[in-house]
């Protein structure tokens, strides 16, 4: 089986880190500076049975400019064409306005969205359930998977969930 998966989330949630963890190479540019990754970066994850192309999708931001609008439209069209969307949340920061804006964009898209709760290495496990409840109020997520993109914790589980949608 094979397919495309888009990774979305506000700046610094760990999109590039997750992609690097999955692909095992430094293909996405990482930085603490928001919006370093301006273009879609594709990474191909291949196993004996499956091939998944990951798209780092940084273009969904609240922007005032025409260029911003164009980037948003391009990103949204991408989300309609992939097999699954990974919506990354930063559990160490908690829910924020940037999350809400992106989740609102996902409303018009039929693609299954997996809620990925990232940076669990930085939070107490008890903090996760209230966050899950908060995010779940805003969207019907197909799956919910807590991970640490940085140390790789539970990333295999995430890949197994993704493979269900190929
Ligand atoms: P992006 O803007 O969404 O692509 O975010 P990046 O992948 O560039 O990550 C932003 C910052 O968060 C970097 O300093 C990463 O090292 C850090 N980061 C990403 N994932 C994790 C994680 O699971 N745990 C921790 N502690 N830090 C993370
Ligand atoms: Mg990035």
TrEMBL record:
Superkingdom to which the source organism belongs: Bacteria
Region of interest: G4: 118-121
Membrane protein topology class: Peripheral membrane protein
Region (G2): 35-39
Region described as G1: 9-16
Entry's localization field: Cytoplasm; Cell membrane
Region (G5): 147-149
Keywords from the UniProt entry: Cell membrane, Cytoplasm, GTP-binding, Membrane, Nucleotide-binding, Ribosome biogenesis, RNA-binding, rRNA-binding
Amino acids binding GTP: 9-16, 56-60, 118-121
Known partners and oligomeric status: Monomer.
Family indicated by similarity: Belongs to the TRAFAC class TrmE-Era-EngA-EngB-Septin-like GTPase superfamily. Era GTPase family.
Function summary: An essential GTPase that binds both GDP and GTP, with rapid nucleotide exchange. Plays a role in 16S rRNA processing and 30S ribosomal subunit biogenesis and possibly also in cell cycle regulation and energy metabolism.
Protein name: GTPase Era
Organism: Paenibacillus dokdonensis
Full protein stretch here: 7 to 172 of 300
